[in-house]
Model the fold of this input.
Amino acid sequence: MESTLLEHINSARKLRKAVAVVTDLTTGVARLVDTANVDDDPLQGEIVSRLKSGKSGIVETPVGETFIQVHVPPLRLVIIGAVHISQALAPMAQACGLDVLVMDPRTAFATAARFEGVALLAQWPQDALNADQLDRFTALVAVTHDPKIDDYPITQALQSECFYIGALGSRKTHGKRCERLSAAGLSETQLARISAPIGLDIGAASPQEIAVAVMAQIIEARRKKASF
Done:
């Protein structure tokens, strides 16, 4: 691989950006494709599909075989609220290959004993959440039911490129949430990005079932709806 291509890949990795190296296996000529130029690439559909799946592979083209090697940052899940749903959701997300961060200022909930093997911050999101944690490869779920904790990270996520934003609460609760966020300056288009009530509608009742519904919705958002 040419040194310039390797430099671009390393730079993209540091910035948590997805790129693909497209190599003509007949000539050996390679090109780098990223979000800025993927729409103009003759293999745009195949490249986007492979970026979404994270799988490299050989593609047959009219001029011969082409190898598409994808470099995609690890997916991240930021969970606001160290509650029972989070205890079920965190290991489930890890099993699906996501890096997980749980954040909750309530030290009685945010304990290592309750979240063994999970990155945990017993801090207010206002103090601990930064822009680097909210990119297009990040999902955020807010499950405390407390506006003082949930509203700030939801607002930050809506102003970022997070591929999924979910918030716990009934339709009535979500309506009040939207009123608060609208008064804070968020648009209807931004608010429409919130999945609430959270999770796929499968009739989930227990924390474990709700976690399944949320994880399924995150996967759906990533595989079917996310763009690059």
